[in-house]
Amino acid sequence: MTEFLQQLINGLAFGSILALIALGYTMVYGILRFINFAHGDVFMLGAFAGFYLAPKIAVVLPLPSIAGAFVVLGISMAVCAALGVLIERFAYRPLRKRPKLTVLITAIGVSLFLEYAGQFFFGAAPKKFPDILPVLPITKIGGLSLNSNQIIVLAVTLILLLALRFIVMKTRIGTAMRAVSFNPEAAALMGVNTDVVISFTFALGSALAAAAGILWAINYPSIDPLMGILPGLKAFVAAVLGGIGNLPGAALGGIIIGVTETLVSGYISSTYRDAIAFAVLILILLVKPSGLLGKKEIEKV
Amino acid sequence: MNFRHAKTFLLGALAASFLAALVASRINPYWLYIFYDIGISIVMAVSLNLINGYTGQFSLGHAGFMAVGAYTSAVITNQFGELNFFAANGIFAVALYAGGLAAALAGLLVGIPTLRLRGDYLAIVTLGFGEIIRVILQNMDKVGAARGLSVNHGWTNLFWTFGLAAVTIYVVASLVNSTYGRGFIAVHDDEVAAEAMGINTTKYKVTAFVIGAFFAGIAGGLYAHSKQFLTPGGFGFMQSITFVVMVILGGMGNTVGVILAAILLTLLPEGLRMLSGIEHLPGFTAERPLGWIGDTRMIIYSLLLIVLMLTRPQGLFSFRRKRN
Predict the structure, then answer these.
(1) Please, are residues A108 and B241 in contact by the beta-carbon 8 Å criterion?
(2) How far is CA A113 from CA A93, A242, B260, in A?
């Protein structure tokens, strides 16, 4: 039982990182109806932004420290938000009226470009992510060992999810986002500047991906330019599982995938862990293609 | 490709590849292996073109089918010791065919549940399928798991590579030009309208997928008996992307363009390798001044994809204006 709870906690920490990435996929899909393949690489760039920022921050603020870690997190999120806006502006916006396949191929191109340009500039060898958080002694609760980093991951994820919910539900721009995702033409007629809304969506999604990258790097401190591929794909599966376009669904899907993968690799076989997410994907597409919380879409001619 | 000359093309190409195989011993082995790669790339790209180009689906797992064919044929031929010329080629033909069938079966298994879905989902599922194949191969101890599988016979030659490339081209060209094959193009142009005209779109998509997978399996067999060593990692996502780039560069649904792109993109890494291997250049003091170029292949591919989609989405080698 203790071991099961332990695996559950590990799975929750992994799953909440996936959830943060999945939110970016689902927001972009909700508004533009296309899969932003490069999203997993924005996650990677978030981790690398933290890697290169940490020594600079250490000059001003003591590192490792909680305050320093939050500054690193914040600046990385801002950097990736800007990057997300740039990618949308230069790669996707010129193609907005073109067939979806064209945009999809471009997104794959952007993803490959970020990965291999990353290998070229950062080097292909894995790098050790600096310690930006003080490592607290592991707390033991009834035989469970709780890593302080895992608690930070869960707490930061929770805060970001609440912040996102606030932005989407309570602010003007959030209302505009929902309007555009509901019907872009009608929203534009009502005076919503769709370009601004789309840029904002990319900024928001990329910032969350960057946060996921930093949290990932704190927990698994080896980072490399191809690290975004698998988490990116798994997060996409999470978004589909929860019902793509649905924000709570993406968070739920991320947690489910994370926990399932950790449990399977703990109890059945760790070598099959990377295949789990895809098996789940094929299963959900067979049984309920609209996802757990998604609504069934009727195709109109 | 002009359909009326398709049979002439097939017979001519078969005869030419047979003659080429006779003089193969005079060709520099380095170039010989590049020629094999070109033939294999043509089979892969033309068969992928049937799925991605003509039928308008988007598969990102073509290398996964190649892996199925490669491992199946290698396991079969590894059962045999040294054989005489006729027995060897006979067994090789059977092994290639079996590899193709195994890949086609895999294509059927993946295709039936997923091809009811729309394009972008299909891309992810096929990508996931490629990963699943890789993970399964890595866990199969009988085929060497992650250590890899050595293939005992190097039976691939110019006749088999270019002969089978010709067969692939012939089959795909004949198919899409036949009455039945117009259905593929109908599915590509407008799925809803095709359905309304009584075309069973799912059946067409699965058919394209299975035929494409069959030829990918055959290409896998050729690859296995040319490289003589297989690793699960050799059939990953990047490999699939390379074939996708060939199809897009050549122009989706344009067989001749795709063949040209397959040749070009097989030669490109060799060219880059040569450039980066140059020891001295006038004006440069450092040794191997262009050494960094060897690492830029994937960056070039990715930029090619982006720029192509922004400026020439119909492909580099498509000159006719596509009807909308």
Answers:
(1) yes
(2) 18, 29, 24
Chain segment A117-159, per-residue pLDDT in tens: 999 899 889 999 988 888 776 777 777 777 788 888 899 999 9
**CA–CA–CA angle A222, A224, A226 (5° rounding):** 130
Cis-peptide, bond into residue A64, ω within 30° of zero: yes
pLDDT confidence of residue B324: 42
- In terms of Cα–Cα distance, which of B42, B64, B37 is closest to B246? B42
Whether chain B has a CB inside 8 Å of the CB on A5: the answer is no
Contacting B residues, span 53-82, partner chain A, CB-CB under 8 Å:
56, 58, 60
Pairing of strands A144-146, B149-150: unpaired
pLDDT digits (tens, 9 = 90+) for A239-293: 989 988 888 999 999 999 999 999 988 888 777 888 888 888 888 877 887 888 8
pLDDT at residue A198 greater than cutoff 90? yes
Residue B304 phi, psi (nearest 5)? -60, -45
Tell me how far the alpha carbon of residue A175 is from its chain's centroid.
22
CA pair distance A158, A220, nearest whole angstrom: 20
8-state DSSP, A133: S
Per the listing, tokens 């005076």 go with A191
pLDDT at position B305 is 83
Within 8 A by CB and 6+ apart from A71, the residues are A57, A61
Please say whether the beta carbons of B212 and B50 come within 8 A.
yes
pLDDT given for residue A212 in this prediction: 96
> Residues of A with CB below 8 A from B64's CB?
none
| A26 vs A289, residue with greater confidence | A26
Looking at this predicted complex, what is its ipTM?
0.80
Q: What is the 3-state secondary structure (H, E, C) of A151-196?
A: HHHHHHHHHHHHHHHHHHHHCHHHHHHHHHHHCHHHHHHCCCCHHH
Per-residue confidence (pLDDT) for residue A210, from 0 to 100: 96
Neighbours of A190 (CB within 10 A): 10
Chain A residue whose CA is closest to B308: A106
Q: What percent of chain A shows pLDDT beyond 70?
A: 98
The answer to whether the CB of B251 falls within 8 A of the CB of A102 is no
Beta bridge partners of A144: A141
Q: What is the DSSP letter of A37?
A: T
Q: What is the distance of C-alpha A196 from the center of its chain?
A: 21
**Alpha-carbon distance A205 to A200, whole Å?**
9
Range with lowest mean pLDDT among A78-92, A202-216, B122-136, B217-231? B122-136
Query: For B295, which residue in chain A has the nearest alpha carbon?
Result: A120
Per-residue model confidence as pLDDT tens digits over B23-36: 888 888 888 899 99
Token code pair at residue A223: 């980072």
Q: How distant, in Å, are the alpha carbons of A242, A250, A280, B120, B269 from that of A285?
A: 11, 15, 8, 13, 38
Closest Cα in chain A to B193: A301
CA distance B273 to B293: 8
Does A123 touch chain B if contact means CB atoms closer than 8 Å?
no
- The domains of chain A are located at 15-229
> Can you give the residue ranges of every domain in chain B?
3-235
Structure tokens that stand for A65 in this block: 């420290």
Residues in chain B: 324
For chain A, list the strands marked E by DSSP: 127-128, 139-141, 144-146, 222-223
Cα A264 to Cα A271: distance, rounded to the nearest angstrom: 10
Q: Does A289 touch chain B (CB under 8 A)?
A: yes
